[in-house]
Amino acid sequence: MNFTHETLPQRVVFAAGSAAEAVAAEVAALKCSRVMLIASGREAGLVDPIAKKLPVVLRHEDVVMHVPVEVAVRAREAAETSGADVLVSVGGGSTTGLAKAVAMTTGLPIIAVPTTYAGSEATSVWGLTEGETKTTGVDNKVLPASIVYDASLLTSLPGKMTVASGLNAMAHCVDSMWGPRSDPIDRALAQEGIRGLAEGLPVVAADPASMAGIEQTLYGAYLAAVAFASAGSGMHHKICHVLGGMFNLPHAQTHAVVLPYVLAFNSPNAADADVRIATAFGSPTATAGLAALRKTLDAPRALKDFGMPESGIEKAVAPLLRAIPVNNPTPVTHENVTALLRAAWEGSEPA
Ligand SMILES: NC(=O)C1=CN([C@@H]2O[C@H](COP(=O)(O)OP(=O)(O)OC[C@H]3O[C@@H](n4cnc5c(N)ncnc54)[C@H](O)[C@@H]3O)[C@@H](O)[C@H]2O)C=CC1
Ligand SMILES: O=C(O)/C=C\C(=O)CC(=O)O
C-alpha cells in the first residue's frame, strides 16, 4: 500500500435529548464566553432551549442555501462587530455552511449542532455561491472544533427532507469510493456508512421521529462525511455543485436524484467500489442495492421536478467536463455526460 491519510481533529459528542447542556459544555471547554449563534428563524423552536444555556452576544438568522457571498459578507461583518469568540451553528448544512464562511475569515472556532443528515459538520469543505457559480474548497479553519449530535433535534425534520438528506449522506459514501483523494481508509468508512444508512433510513422514512432510526442514520451520516472530507468531491458532487449553483436547486434533493445515475455510470469500471457498496447493502450489485433502498424510501426521481430547466442540460455540460476529476472510473465525454444529465432530468431508468 502507498497512501497518506489525514485524520481531521474534532470532538464528536452524541447527546440524545441533551444538546443544550452538551453545547454549553463544549463552549466552556473551549474557554469561550461570547457566542455568535447562527440559526435560521425557521428552526427557532429547536434553538431557543440551546440559546438559553449559552452566553449569546449575537443571534444571526440570515441563512440561505448554497451560501451566497453577500449572505456570507453580512454574517462576517456581524461577527466582527459583535466581538464573538465562538460560533455555535444549529441547523442543516446551510447553517453550518454559513458558520464556515465566517470561520474562514475570522478564524473563530465552530461548535456545530446538525439538524439534518448533510454532514457538513464533519468536513473541512466550504462552499460559496456567486451569481450562478458555486465554488467549493478545503480549509482546516472551517472544520468545526466540536459536533453535538442530538437525535431529538431531527424529530421535526419532514419525511421528504429526511429521505433526501439521508441520500445526500449516502452520496458522500458512494462518491468517496472514487473521489480524487480516495484511499482505503475512506472506502472502509464509506462502506460502514452505507451499511448504517441502509439500516437507519428505512426506519426514519417510515417514522421521521423515531429516535433509534435517527441515531442510526446520524451515525451513518457522520461516517459518510468523514470519508467524503478525506476523499474529496468526485463526479457526483461536482455534478450537484454545478447544477445547484447554476439553477439554485435544493441541495439534498439534487443529490438524491443524481446518485443512481452516477453509480450506474461508474460502477462497471470500479470493481472494488461495486463489491464494497453491494456488500454494505447486502445486495448482489451496488446498483441493485441502491435501487432497492430508493424504492423503499420513495426517493425523489427527476431534476425537472425541482426546478431545473430542460435547456440547463446543455448549459451544464461544459462546466461539468472541466470540473469532474480526471481519475473518474469511467472517462467522461460530452455525449455520456449529456446522456446522464438528460436521464436524471427526466427521471428515466439509470443506464
Ligand atoms: N461543506 C460540506 O461538507 C457540505 C455542505 N452542504 C451544504 O449544505 C446545504 C444544504 O444543507 P441541507 O441540510 O440539505 O439543507 P438546509 O440546511 O438548507 O435545510 C433544508 C430545510 O430543512 C429545514 N430544516 C433543517 N433542519 C430541520 C429540522 N430538524 N426540522 C425541521 N426543518 C428543518 C431548514 O429550515 C430548510 O428549510 C447546501 O448549501 C450544501 O452545499 C451539504 C453537505 C456537506
Ligand atoms: O455536496 C455536498 O453535499 C458536499 C459539499 C458541499 O455542499 C459544499 C458546500 O459546502 O457548498
Structure description:
Residues 9-150 form the Alcohol dehydrogenase iron-type/glycerol dehydrogenase GldA domain. Keywords: NAD, Oxidoreductase. Pfam families: ADH_Fe_C, Fe-ADH. This is Maleylacetate reductase. The protein has 351 residues and is an alpha/beta fold. The chain is 53% helix and 11% strand. The chain is built from 13 helices and 8 strands. The chain has helices at 19-29, 44-51, 69-82, 93-106, 159-176, 184-206, 211-231, 235-247, 251-266, 271-281, 286-297, 312-323, 334-346; strands spanning 11-14, 35-38, 56-60, 86-91, 110-114, 125-130, 133-138, 146-149. A 6-stranded parallel beta sheet has the order 1-8-5-4-2-3, sandwiched between helices. Helix 4 links the parallel strand 4 and strand 5. Helix 5 runs parallel beside helix 9. The structure holds 1,4-dihydronicotinamide adenine dinucleotide (NAI) and the ligand O=C(O)/C=C\C(=O)CC(=O)O.
Question: How confident is the prediction overall: mean pLDDT?
Answer: 97
Ligands in the model, by name, code or SMILES, are:
1,4-dihydronicotinamide adenine dinucleotide, the ligand O=C(O)/C=C\C(=O)CC(=O)O
How many H/I helical runs?
A: 13
Let me know the number of strands: 8
Oligomer: single chain
Largest sheet: 6 strands, parallel
Query: Ranges with pLDDT <50 over ≥5 residues?
Result: none
CA-atom Rg in angstroms: 19 Å
Strand order of the largest sheet: 1-8-5-4-2-3
